[in-house]
């Protein structure tokens, strides 16, 4: 998946009182740090005197500059105090995720004077933003070199990237209708479009299968060579070359459909029509495609959105995986199994040879199911879901731990208090499917909900901060 890093509108705030020279110094320090950290930003140096908003008359020029630059998020560092009316108007007119912060004030000079009253100005601006109904995030009042500043900025940029999904619009291809006995994946298509700008594009399974079969015949020699290479790296059981070639064609047809229709994710029926047509399970195709974009098995549209949000928060192009909470650890009361099939290949444990084999639950002679454990690391899970017009994002973090081996794609995750997680999930609008990714990004996903109307965050791990609603 192509990494997305938001363009930051750097809008330094000053005021006619306190030291103008110190405000300029603070602004330059920020610019240097942002460049060093590789942040894509646009400032006001060519727009306003000294590149600072110091008066309400500066509002329109600043807004025009940031709109023309196509910014995705707004940073309002208070460099000496704060012109709160301008802060409110700029943030409201741009309608972008907004961030408040200011450098921590030094001790007063020997004569009792102060260069700035940044904290005071932040309180004034936050009141105006509240008054105007503008959602915003904050970083604690600290020095620019303080680790809390960089961590808070990174969290905000990840949150802004997630929020931008629903500002720009999301397109999910629904490949095959919902499996009739999966009532848990019923969604309100109209609400998703009206509230979140999520468009569901139906893709006819008959047409898809026919196109994949034509592709397999047309590119038979290329697929035959890929099958030979695949057998070198994988343990392939009870799967003929022709059937495996059709699975590869399903992979390529999914990628082609996504590219041709501008899809951000796929909700895939996964069984049984496409499996019967191929003569094999298509888990390998799901694994391969999910490196590039979310593939939600069992036509789980909300799962596809969960996966997509997690990938945006990761920010580096690495994939997420729509797994499911399955069983508790037999010995660790705070560990649980994350399991399913079709995991991204890059998430597997590199020490274990992957296998394509039979389905161990469904009584079928067909092969093609992926079997490999996932690697270790810090894990963030997320689930977007809703019923009765209320939408919530469940988020939490844990760590991969030892546990007994099982089949398909799996990892055991230890969390802080599994009984709390279980109660929360049972009483919310969520199902057992959760997107998982490697990294500690629950705070960023929680903060993103500040900027997504009609969506609130719930922390499964109880680490609720000031970033939710």
Concise synopsis of the structure shown:
The protein is of the alpha/beta class and about 475 residues long.
Would you mind describing this structure in some detail?
- The chain is an alpha/beta fold and 469 residues long.
- 37% of the residues lie in helices and 22% in strands.
- Helix 3 packs across helix 4 (118-131), helix 5 packs antiparallel against helix 12 and helix 8 crosses helix 9.
- The longest helix is centred in the middle third of the chain and has 22 residues, at 147-168.
- The two termini are 29 Å apart.
Coarse structural class:
alpha/beta
Write the CATH architecture name of the largest domain: Alpha-Beta Barrel
Strand order across the biggest sheet?
11-12-17-16-15-18
What overall form do the CA principal axes indicate?
elongated
Helix segment count?
14
**What is the number of E strands?**
19
| Number of domain units | 2
Give a short account of the largest sheet: 6 strands, antiparallel, barrel
pLDDT < 50 runs, ≥5 residues: 465-469
Rg over C-alpha atoms, rounded to the nearest angstrom: 25 Å
Would you tell me which CATH topology of the largest domain applies?
A: L-fucose Isomerase, Chain A, domain 3
End-to-end distance: 29 Å
Nearest-integer average pLDDT: 94
């Amino acid at each position: 998946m192509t990494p997305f890093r938001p363009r930051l509108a750097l809008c330094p705030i000053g005021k006619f009182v306190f030291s103008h020279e110190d405000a300029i110094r603070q602004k330059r320090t920020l610019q240097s740090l942002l460049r060093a950290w590789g942040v894509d930003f646009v400032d006001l140096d060519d727009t306003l005197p000294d590149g600072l908003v110091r008066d309400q008359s500066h509002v329109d020029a600043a807004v025009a500059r940031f709109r023309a630059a196509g910014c995705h998020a707004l940073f309002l560092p208070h460099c000496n105090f704060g012109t709160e009316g301008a802060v409110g108007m700029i943030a409201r007119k741009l309608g972008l995720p907004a961030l408040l912060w200011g450098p921590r004030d030094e001790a007063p000079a020997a004569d009792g004077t102060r260069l700035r009253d940044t904290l005071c100005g932040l309180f004034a601006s936050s009141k105006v933003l509240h008054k105007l109904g503008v959602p915003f995030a904050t970083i604690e009042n600290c020095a620019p070199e303080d680790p809390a500043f960089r961590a808070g900025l990174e969290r905000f940029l990840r949150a802004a990237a997630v929020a931008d999904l629903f500002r720009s619009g999301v397109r999910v291809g629904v490949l095959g209708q919902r499996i009739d006995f999966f009532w848990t994946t019923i969604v309100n298509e109209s609400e998703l479009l009206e509230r979140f700008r999520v468009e569901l594009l139906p893709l006819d399974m008959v047409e898809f299968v026919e196109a994949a079969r034509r592709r397999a015949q047309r590119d038979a020699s290329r697929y035959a060579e890929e099958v030979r290479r695949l057998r070198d790296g994988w343990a392939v059981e009870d799967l003929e070359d022709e059937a495996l070639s059709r699975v590869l064609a399903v992979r390529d047809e999914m990628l082609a459909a996504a590219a041709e229709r501008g899809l951000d994710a796929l909700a895939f029926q996964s069984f049984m029509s496409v499996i019967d047509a191929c003569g094999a399970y298509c888990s390998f195709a799901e694994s391969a495609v999910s490196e590039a974009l979310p593939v939600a098995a069992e036509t789980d549209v909300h799962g596809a959105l969960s996966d997509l949000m997690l990938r945006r928060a990761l920010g580096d192009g690495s994939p997420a995986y729509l797994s499911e909470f399955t069983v508790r650890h037999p010995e660790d009361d705070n560990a649980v199994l994350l399991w399913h099939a079709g995991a991204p290949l890059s998430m597997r444990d590199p020490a274990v040879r992957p296998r394509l084999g039979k389905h161990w639950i469904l009584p079928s002679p067909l092969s093609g199911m992926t079997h490999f454990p996932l690697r270790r690391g810090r894990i963030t899970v997320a689930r977007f879901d809703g019923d009765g017009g209320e939408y919530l994002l469940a988020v939490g973090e844990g760590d991969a731990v030892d546990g007994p081996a099982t089949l398909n794609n799996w990892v055991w995750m230890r969390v802080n208090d599994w009984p709390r997680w279980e109660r929360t999930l049972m009483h919310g609008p969520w199902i057992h499917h959760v997107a998982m990714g490697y990294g500690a990004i629950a705070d960023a996903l929680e903060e993103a909900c500040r900027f997504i109307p009609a969506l609130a965050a719930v922390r499964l791990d109880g680490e609720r901060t000031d970033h939710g609603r």
